[in-house]
C-alpha cells in the first residue's frame, strides 16, 4: 500500500508543478547550480537499513536512476553518476557488531569484532569475509551515508569506532572517512517502544514478551540453517554460532582457507584458524537458546542498543566531527489529545496495525514506579510522546539532549518545501534537522512505493550531496 496522503499546501503546490513536468527521473534531478559547468566527481553513497531490514537493494527502489547525473539540453553535465553502495549488517545485531560488518563489507577482509569485545559477550571474534564494495575508502576518498532507523545510529556508531583503536592501523581508519551522515527516523536517544516490546532497564528481556518470541524465532531459524532460506533472508549472526552445523559438524571448524588474499599476515591466519577451532566451546544449543539466549538476554544486540538507557551510554562517549555534514529527517504521525495531553497516531496507509497500537502506547508511556534506574523522569517523559509510530521525535533530531545554535539548526518540512531553502548554507559539524509532519516511520525509506513524496525526498537528497561535493 502507498504511504499516507499528506496535506501541506506547499507539498500540494510542488506536486501540482511536478505533474505538469515530465515524469522521468532525470527531470527530477535538477542541479542546485546553473552557472557552474564543471565536471564534478560524485562521492559514492552508502545505504544502511534498520532493524530487521532484509538487506536487498531492490527494496530501496530504482536509486541508481535517481542518482544518475542530469544531462539535459539546457546545461552541460554537472557531475558523474553517483555510485550506490548497499551494505547488509546483521539486522538484529548490536551497533558495535553492525558497524564492524559495514566497515569490512566496504573495505574488504574478514570481520574482526575485537578480542576484548567478543570475549566479553561470548561470541566468535571473527565473522564473514568480504571482497570489498569500495576498497579505496579512505580520508582522501570518503563516502556519504544514508541510514534509516537503526541504520542511522549504526553509522553514528561507526564514525565513533573510526575515531578509536577498533580497526587495524594499516587500514588507516579515521572519522573523516564519512563525508556526510544523513538519517531518517533514527532513534539517537533510544525509544520507549523497545521497553513496550519487552526490554527492561536492567538489560534483559521479559520472558513472554513480543521481543522474547521474536528472538526465539531468530534462534530456530539460525539453528536450522536452511541455505535456500538464508538466500531469501539472512540475519547475519554467524559469529554467535547458533547453527546446528556449529554444534554437530566439527569438521567445519577447520575449513578456513588461510591463503585468501584478504588475510594480511600468517599470524592473523593462525589466529583465525585457532579461534575458529575454539568455536566448539562457544557454540550454543537450541534448547539453551530457547530457555535463556546468551545473545538476546544480554546487551550485545540491537533491541538493547535502541533503549533509552543504552543510547545514553553511547552518546556520553560520542562526538560530532567538524568535517562531516550531518542531516536528520524527523518524522511524526501523532497528534496531542486535548483532554489527556497524550499523543495518538493519525491514520496512515504506511503504518501497520501493530505499529498503530505501539505508537499509541509510546504516546502515553511512563516508566513503572518500581522500574530500577529509569532513564527518564516522569516529569520529562512528555518530551518523548510525539512519535512516528516507532520512534519519538525528541530522539530523532540529534544525539544532543539540549539544542543550541552552535550544535544544530531546525527546519520544518522537507528541504525543497522550505520557502527559504535557497537562502541557507549547509555547515559541517552541525546537525541540520528537518521535521516532517504527517509522516510515519516507514513512509520515506527504505521501502519503495514510488510516491511523489519519496521522489521529492531523494531529489532533495541528491541536490544536498551535489552541493557537498562542490565544496
From TrEMBL:
It is found in: Secreted. Transmembrane segments: none annotated. GO terms for biological process: lipid metabolic process. Its main location: secreted. Residues 44-266 form the Lipase-like C-terminal domain. GO terms for cellular component: extracellular region. It holds the Pfam family Lip_C. The keyword Transmembrane helix does not apply. Keywords: Hydrolase, Lipid metabolism, Secreted, Signal. GO terms for molecular function: hydrolase activity. It comes from the Eukaryota. PANTHER family: ALPHA/BETA-HYDROLASES SUPERFAMILY PROTEIN, ALPHA_BETA-HYDROLASES SUPERFAMILY PROTEIN. This is 15925_t:CDS:1. The lineage of its organism: Eukaryota, Fungi, Fungi incertae sedis, Mucoromycota, Glomeromycotina.
Amino acid at each position: 500500500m502507498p504511504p499516507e496522503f499528506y496535506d501541506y499546501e506547499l507539498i500540494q503546490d510542488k506536486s501540482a508543478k511536478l505533474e505538469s513536468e515530465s515524469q522521468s527521473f532525470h527531470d527530477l534531478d535538477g542541479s542546485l547550480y546553473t552557472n557552474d559547468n564543471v565536471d564534478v566527481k560524485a562521492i559514492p553513497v552508502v545505504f544502511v537499513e534498520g532493524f530487521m531490514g532484509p538487506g536487498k537493494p531492490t527494496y530501496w527502489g530504482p536509486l541508481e536512476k535517481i542518482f544518475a547525473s542530469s544531462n539535459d539540453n539546457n546545461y552541460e553535465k554537472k557531475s558523474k553518476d553517483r555510485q550506490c553502495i548497499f551494505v547488509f549488517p546483521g539486522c538484529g545485531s548490536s551497533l558495535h557488531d553492525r558497524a564492524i560488518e559495514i566497515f569490512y563489507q566496504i573495505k574488504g577482509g574478514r570481520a574482526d569484532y575485537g578480542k576484548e569485545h567478543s570475549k566479553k559477550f561470548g561470541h566468535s571474534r571473527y565473522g564473514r569475509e568480504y571482497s570489498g564494495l569500495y576498497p579505496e575508502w579512505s580520508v582522501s576518498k570518503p563516502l556519504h551515508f544514508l541510514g534509516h532507523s537503526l541504520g542511522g545510529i549504526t553509522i553514528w556508531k561507526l564514525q565513533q569506532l573510526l575515531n578509536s583503536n577498533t580497526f587495524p592501523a594499516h587500514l588507516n581508519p579515521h572519522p573523516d572517512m564519512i563525508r556526510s551522515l544523513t538519517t531518517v527516523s533514527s532513534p539517537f536517544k533510544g525509544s520507549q517502544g523497545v521497553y513496550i516490546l519487552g526490554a527492561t532497564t536492567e538489560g534483559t528481556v521479559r520472558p513472554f514478551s513480543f521481543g522474547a518470541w521474536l528472538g526465539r524465532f531468530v534462534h530456530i531459524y539460525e539453528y536450522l540453517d536452511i541455505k535456500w532460506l538464508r538466500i531469501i533472508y539472512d540475519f547475519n549472526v554467524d559469529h554467535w554460532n547458533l547453527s546446528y552445523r556449529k554444534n554437530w559438524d566439527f569438521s567445519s571448524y577447520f575449513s578456513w582457507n588461510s591463503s585468501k588474499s584478504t588475510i594480511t599476515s600468517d599470524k592473523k591466519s593462525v589466529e583465525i584458524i585457532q579461534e575458529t577451532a575454539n568455536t566448539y566451546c562457544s557454540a550454543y544449543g537450541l534448547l539453551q537458546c530457547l530457555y535463556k539466549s546468551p545473545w538476546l538476554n544480554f546487551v550485545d544486540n540491537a533491541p538493547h542498543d535502541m533503549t533509552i538507557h543504552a543510547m545514553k551510554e553511547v552518546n556520553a562517549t560520542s562526538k560530532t566531527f567538524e568535517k562531516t555534514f550531518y542531516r536528520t529527517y524527523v518524522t511524526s504521525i501523532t497528534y496531542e489529545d486535548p483532554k489527556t495531553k497524550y499523543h495518538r497516531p493519525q491514520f496512515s496507509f504506511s503504518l501497520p496495525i501493530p505499529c498503530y497500537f505501539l505508537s499509541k502506547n509510546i504516546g502515553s508511556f511512563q516508566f513503572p514506579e518500581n522500574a530500577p534506574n529509569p532513564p527518564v523522569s516522569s516529569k520529562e517523559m512528555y518530551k518523548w510522546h510525539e512519535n512516528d509510530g516507532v520512534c519519538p521525535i525528541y530522539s530523532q533530531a540529534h544525539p544532543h539532549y539540549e539544542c543550541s545554535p552552535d550544535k544544530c539548526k531546525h527546519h520544518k518540512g522537507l528541504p525543497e518545501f522550505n520557502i527559504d531553502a535557497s537562502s541557507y548554507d549547509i555547515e559541517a559539524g552541525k546537525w541540520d534537522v528537518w521535521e516532517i509532519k504527517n509522516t510515519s516511520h516507514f513512509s520515506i525509506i527504505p521501502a519503495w512505493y514510488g510516491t511523489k513524496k519519496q521522489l521529492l525526498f531523494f531529489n532533495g537528497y541528491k541536490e544536498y550531496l551535489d552541493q557537498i561535493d562542490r565544496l
